[in-house]
Amino acid sequence: MSSLDNDINQHFQDAIDVIQRHSDDPYCDTEYKYFEPPMRSSIMCCYPITHPSDVPGPYDWNEQTSWPHVVPYGSLGPSVTMDYPQFYSIAPPPRSGKGRKKLRLYEYLHEALGDPNTADSIQWTDRGSGTFHFISKNKEKLAECWGKRKGNRKTMTYQKMARALRNYSRTGEIVKVRRKLTYQFNPSIIQRLGAEQAYYGSAAAPDWHNWYGHYSLQGDCDLATSFTSSTVTKV
DNA sequence: GTTATCGGGAAAACAC
DNA sequence: AGTGTTTTCCCGATAA
Protein backbone atom coordinates (compact mmCIF):
# COMPACT_ATOMS: atom_id res chain seq x y z
CA MET A 1 0.00 0.00 0.00
CA SER A 2 1.37 3.39 -0.94
CA SER A 3 1.93 6.20 1.48
CA LEU A 4 -0.86 8.09 -0.25
CA ASP A 5 -3.23 5.25 0.51
CA ASN A 6 -2.12 5.33 4.09
CA ASP A 7 -2.74 9.04 4.17
CA ILE A 8 -6.19 8.66 2.74
CA ASN A 9 -7.02 5.92 5.18
CA GLN A 10 -5.88 8.15 7.99
CA HIS A 11 -8.06 10.97 6.72
CA PHE A 12 -11.04 8.66 6.45
CA GLN A 13 -10.45 7.55 9.98
CA ASP A 14 -10.26 11.15 11.06
CA ALA A 15 -13.44 11.94 9.17
CA ILE A 16 -15.24 9.10 10.92
CA ASP A 17 -13.97 10.49 14.16
CA VAL A 18 -15.42 13.88 13.25
CA ILE A 19 -18.76 12.38 12.27
CA GLN A 20 -18.93 10.50 15.53
CA ARG A 21 -18.20 13.67 17.41
CA HIS A 22 -20.98 15.31 15.52
CA SER A 23 -23.60 13.25 17.23
CA ASP A 24 -22.77 14.61 20.64
CA ASP A 25 -21.12 17.91 19.85
CA PRO A 26 -23.37 20.79 20.92
CA TYR A 27 -21.84 22.93 18.18
CA CYS A 28 -23.10 20.59 15.56
CA ASP A 29 -26.60 19.89 16.70
CA THR A 30 -28.40 22.75 15.11
CA GLU A 31 -28.73 24.36 11.73
CA TYR A 32 -26.60 21.82 10.11
CA LYS A 33 -25.54 23.42 6.90
CA TYR A 34 -22.47 23.25 4.86
CA PHE A 35 -21.08 23.96 1.44
CA GLU A 36 -23.86 23.50 -1.01
CA PRO A 37 -22.79 22.73 -4.52
CA PRO A 38 -23.81 26.20 -5.76
CA MET A 39 -21.39 27.72 -3.27
CA ARG A 40 -18.66 25.47 -4.47
CA SER A 41 -19.36 26.28 -8.05
CA SER A 42 -19.62 29.95 -7.34
CA ILE A 43 -16.13 30.11 -5.94
CA MET A 44 -14.88 28.11 -8.83
CA CYS A 45 -16.29 30.78 -11.07
CA CYS A 46 -14.23 33.43 -9.39
CA TYR A 47 -10.96 31.83 -10.27
CA PRO A 48 -9.39 33.52 -13.20
CA ILE A 49 -9.97 31.29 -16.14
CA THR A 50 -6.66 31.23 -17.85
CA HIS A 51 -5.16 28.85 -20.27
CA PRO A 52 -2.32 26.91 -18.64
CA SER A 53 0.07 28.10 -21.27
CA ASP A 54 -0.68 31.64 -20.25
CA VAL A 55 0.18 30.91 -16.69
CA PRO A 56 3.36 28.94 -16.46
CA GLY A 57 3.38 29.41 -12.74
CA PRO A 58 6.22 30.58 -10.66
CA TYR A 59 7.71 27.17 -10.36
CA ASP A 60 7.52 24.07 -12.46
CA TRP A 61 7.21 21.19 -10.04
CA ASN A 62 7.91 18.69 -12.77
CA GLU A 63 11.43 19.92 -13.03
CA GLN A 64 13.82 17.74 -11.14
CA THR A 65 15.43 20.65 -9.42
CA SER A 66 15.79 21.33 -5.79
CA TRP A 67 13.07 23.11 -3.94
CA PRO A 68 13.82 26.80 -4.15
CA HIS A 69 13.59 28.89 -1.06
CA VAL A 70 12.33 31.80 -3.01
CA VAL A 71 10.54 31.21 -6.22
CA PRO A 72 11.35 33.71 -8.91
CA TYR A 73 8.09 35.23 -9.73
CA GLY A 74 7.28 35.12 -13.36
CA SER A 75 3.88 35.71 -14.76
CA LEU A 76 1.14 34.68 -12.47
CA GLY A 77 -2.42 34.83 -13.52
CA PRO A 78 -4.40 37.94 -12.94
CA SER A 79 -5.63 38.35 -9.45
CA VAL A 80 -9.30 38.82 -9.07
CA THR A 81 -11.08 39.81 -5.95
CA MET A 82 -14.77 39.22 -5.74
CA ASP A 83 -17.36 40.48 -3.39
CA TYR A 84 -18.75 37.96 -1.02
CA PRO A 85 -21.04 38.00 1.90
CA GLN A 86 -18.69 39.57 4.37
CA PHE A 87 -18.32 37.09 7.14
CA TYR A 88 -15.84 34.45 7.99
CA SER A 89 -16.21 30.83 8.70
CA ILE A 90 -14.14 29.63 11.54
CA ALA A 91 -13.64 26.06 12.44
CA PRO A 92 -13.71 24.73 15.93
CA PRO A 93 -10.70 25.09 18.12
CA PRO A 94 -8.52 22.04 18.15
CA ARG A 95 -9.96 19.29 20.21
CA SER A 96 -7.70 16.55 21.28
CA GLY A 97 -8.71 13.05 20.51
CA LYS A 98 -7.35 9.74 19.57
CA GLY A 99 -5.63 9.82 16.21
CA ARG A 100 -6.68 13.42 15.71
CA LYS A 101 -3.80 15.37 14.32
CA LYS A 102 -3.33 18.98 15.14
CA LEU A 103 -4.51 21.27 12.40
CA ARG A 104 -1.59 22.76 10.58
CA LEU A 105 -1.38 26.22 9.17
CA TYR A 106 -1.06 25.14 5.56
CA GLU A 107 -4.15 22.97 5.97
CA TYR A 108 -6.06 25.91 7.35
CA LEU A 109 -4.94 28.10 4.47
CA HIS A 110 -5.99 25.48 1.98
CA GLU A 111 -9.38 25.35 3.63
CA ALA A 112 -9.63 29.11 3.52
CA LEU A 113 -8.81 29.07 -0.17
CA GLY A 114 -11.79 26.83 -0.73
CA ASP A 115 -14.10 28.95 1.30
CA PRO A 116 -15.87 31.84 -0.45
CA ASN A 117 -16.28 33.55 2.90
CA THR A 118 -12.54 34.11 3.17
CA ALA A 119 -12.09 35.20 -0.41
CA ASP A 120 -11.54 38.75 0.69
CA SER A 121 -8.46 37.69 2.61
CA ILE A 122 -6.86 34.92 0.62
CA GLN A 123 -7.25 33.79 -2.96
CA TRP A 124 -5.72 31.53 -5.49
CA THR A 125 -3.43 33.40 -7.81
CA ASP A 126 -3.01 30.39 -10.02
CA ARG A 127 -4.66 27.32 -8.67
CA GLY A 128 -2.97 25.07 -11.18
CA SER A 129 0.44 25.83 -9.74
CA GLY A 130 -0.81 26.05 -6.18
CA THR A 131 0.00 29.72 -5.98
CA PHE A 132 -2.06 31.89 -3.69
CA HIS A 133 -1.89 35.34 -2.21
CA PHE A 134 -3.23 37.24 0.73
CA ILE A 135 -5.33 40.34 0.27
CA SER A 136 -3.44 43.14 1.92
CA LYS A 137 -6.51 44.82 3.28
CA ASN A 138 -7.89 41.80 5.10
CA LYS A 139 -4.93 39.54 5.70
CA GLU A 140 -4.88 40.43 9.38
CA LYS A 141 -8.42 39.16 9.78
CA LEU A 142 -7.53 35.79 8.42
CA ALA A 143 -4.52 35.65 10.72
CA GLU A 144 -6.72 36.61 13.62
CA CYS A 145 -9.12 33.81 12.84
CA TRP A 146 -6.25 31.38 12.57
CA GLY A 147 -5.08 32.42 15.99
CA LYS A 148 -8.54 32.06 17.45
CA ARG A 149 -8.99 28.70 15.87
CA LYS A 150 -5.78 27.56 17.43
CA GLY A 151 -6.84 29.03 20.71
CA ASN A 152 -3.78 31.20 21.04
CA ARG A 153 -3.59 33.45 24.01
CA LYS A 154 -2.43 36.43 22.06
CA THR A 155 -3.88 37.79 18.85
CA MET A 156 -2.36 36.26 15.77
CA THR A 157 -1.08 38.77 13.28
CA TYR A 158 -0.16 38.43 9.65
CA GLN A 159 3.45 39.02 10.56
CA LYS A 160 3.48 36.07 12.93
CA MET A 161 1.51 33.89 10.56
CA ALA A 162 3.94 34.77 7.78
CA ARG A 163 6.80 33.77 10.06
CA ALA A 164 5.19 30.35 10.38
CA LEU A 165 4.81 30.25 6.61
CA ARG A 166 8.48 30.97 6.19
CA ASN A 167 9.25 27.94 8.28
CA TYR A 168 7.52 25.91 5.57
CA SER A 169 10.25 27.00 3.17
CA ARG A 170 12.58 24.67 5.04
CA THR A 171 10.20 21.75 5.22
CA GLY A 172 8.80 22.27 1.76
CA GLU A 173 5.05 22.51 2.27
CA ILE A 174 4.90 26.09 1.04
CA VAL A 175 7.46 28.42 -0.48
CA LYS A 176 7.48 32.14 -0.91
CA VAL A 177 6.93 33.48 -4.37
CA ARG A 178 8.74 36.62 -5.31
CA ARG A 179 5.62 38.65 -5.32
CA LYS A 180 4.00 40.61 -2.58
CA LEU A 181 1.99 38.44 -0.17
CA THR A 182 2.19 35.48 -2.53
CA TYR A 183 3.09 31.89 -1.70
CA GLN A 184 3.00 28.54 -3.39
CA PHE A 185 1.97 25.09 -2.17
CA ASN A 186 4.06 22.07 -2.87
CA PRO A 187 2.06 20.04 -5.42
CA SER A 188 2.15 16.92 -3.30
CA ILE A 189 0.58 18.89 -0.49
CA ILE A 190 -2.06 20.18 -2.86
CA GLN A 191 -2.76 16.65 -4.00
CA ARG A 192 -3.09 15.39 -0.46
CA LEU A 193 -5.27 18.27 0.68
CA GLY A 194 -7.36 17.94 -2.44
CA ALA A 195 -8.15 14.33 -1.66
CA GLU A 196 -8.91 15.29 1.90
CA GLN A 197 -11.18 18.12 0.84
CA ALA A 198 -13.02 15.86 -1.56
CA TYR A 199 -14.05 13.81 1.41
CA TYR A 200 -14.41 16.51 4.02
CA GLY A 201 -16.40 18.60 1.61
CA SER A 202 -19.21 16.13 2.08
CA ALA A 203 -18.57 15.00 5.59
CA ALA A 204 -16.47 17.12 7.85
CA ALA A 205 -16.82 20.60 6.42
CA PRO A 206 -20.19 20.96 8.10
CA ASP A 207 -18.46 20.60 11.38
CA TRP A 208 -16.57 23.81 11.18
CA HIS A 209 -19.09 25.81 9.24
CA ASN A 210 -21.76 24.98 11.72
CA TRP A 211 -19.35 25.70 14.49
CA TYR A 212 -18.76 29.15 13.08
CA GLY A 213 -22.46 29.78 13.27
CA HIS A 214 -22.30 28.99 16.92
CA TYR A 215 -19.06 30.84 17.46
CA SER A 216 -20.18 34.02 15.80
CA LEU A 217 -23.30 34.00 17.89
CA GLN A 218 -21.10 34.08 20.93
CA GLY A 219 -19.57 37.26 19.61
CA ASP A 220 -16.12 35.89 20.23
CA CYS A 221 -15.05 36.45 16.70
CA ASP A 222 -17.49 38.89 15.31
CA LEU A 223 -16.05 39.15 11.90
CA ALA A 224 -19.47 39.23 10.39
CA THR A 225 -19.67 42.86 11.29
CA SER A 226 -16.06 43.64 10.75
CA PHE A 227 -16.28 42.53 7.17
CA THR A 228 -19.00 44.72 5.94
CA SER A 229 -16.91 46.47 3.38
CA SER A 230 -18.00 45.58 -0.08
CA THR A 231 -15.29 47.36 -1.94
CA VAL A 232 -13.23 45.48 -4.41
CA THR A 233 -9.82 45.09 -2.91
CA LYS A 234 -6.56 44.73 -4.63
CA VAL A 235 -3.25 43.45 -3.37
C1' DG B 1 12.05 59.45 5.32
C1' DT B 2 8.01 56.39 5.87
C1' DT B 3 5.58 52.28 5.46
C1' DA B 4 4.83 47.59 4.22
C1' DT B 5 6.74 43.36 3.51
C1' DC B 6 10.20 39.97 3.88
C1' DG B 7 13.82 36.89 6.08
C1' DG B 8 15.48 34.56 9.73
C1' DG B 9 17.58 33.77 14.64
C1' DA B 10 16.24 32.47 19.04
C1' DA B 11 13.51 30.97 22.69
C1' DA B 12 9.05 29.83 24.58
C1' DA B 13 4.80 27.33 24.25
C1' DC B 14 2.19 23.63 23.11
C1' DA B 15 0.59 19.09 21.23
C1' DC B 16 1.47 14.49 20.37
C1' DA C 1 11.11 13.10 28.14
C1' DG C 2 11.67 13.89 23.33
C1' DT C 3 10.26 15.73 19.14
C1' DG C 4 7.81 18.49 15.95
C1' DT C 5 5.25 22.60 15.06
C1' DT C 6 4.07 26.73 15.79
C1' DT C 7 4.12 31.20 18.38
C1' DT C 8 6.28 35.22 19.88
C1' DC C 9 9.68 38.67 19.79
C1' DC C 10 13.07 40.96 17.62
C1' DC C 11 16.09 43.13 14.30
C1' DG C 12 17.75 44.17 9.87
C1' DA C 13 17.06 44.31 4.74
C1' DT C 14 14.52 45.62 0.80
C1' DA C 15 11.08 47.77 -2.11
C1' DA C 16 7.51 51.05 -3.17
From TrEMBL:
<dbReference type="GO" id="GO:0000981">
    <property type="term" value="F:DNA-binding transcription factor activity, RNA polymerase II-specific"/>
</dbReference>
<dbReference type="InterPro" id="IPR046328">
    <property type="entry name" value="ETS_fam"/>
</dbReference>
<keyword id="KW-0539">Nucleus</keyword>
<comment type="similarity">
    <text>Belongs to the ETS family.</text>
</comment>
<dbReference type="Pfam" id="PF00178">
    <property type="entry name" value="Ets"/>
</dbReference>
<feature type="domain" description="ETS">
    <location>
        <begin position="103"/>
        <end position="186"/>
    </location>
</feature>
<dbReference type="GO" id="GO:0005634">
    <property type="term" value="C:nucleus"/>
</dbReference>
<dbReference type="GO" id="GO:0043565">
    <property type="term" value="F:sequence-specific DNA binding"/>
</dbReference>
<keyword id="KW-0238">DNA-binding</keyword>
<dbReference type="GO" id="GO:0030154">
    <property type="term" value="P:cell differentiation"/>
</dbReference>
<dbReference type="InterPro" id="IPR000418">
    <property type="entry name" value="Ets_dom"/>
</dbReference>
<dbReference type="InterPro" id="IPR036390">
    <property type="entry name" value="WH_DNA-bd_sf"/>
</dbReference>
<protein>
    <submittedName>
        <fullName>Spi-C transcription factor (Spi-1/PU.1 related)</fullName>
    </submittedName>
</protein>
<dbReference type="InterPro" id="IPR036388">
    <property type="entry name" value="WH-like_DNA-bd_sf"/>
</dbReference>
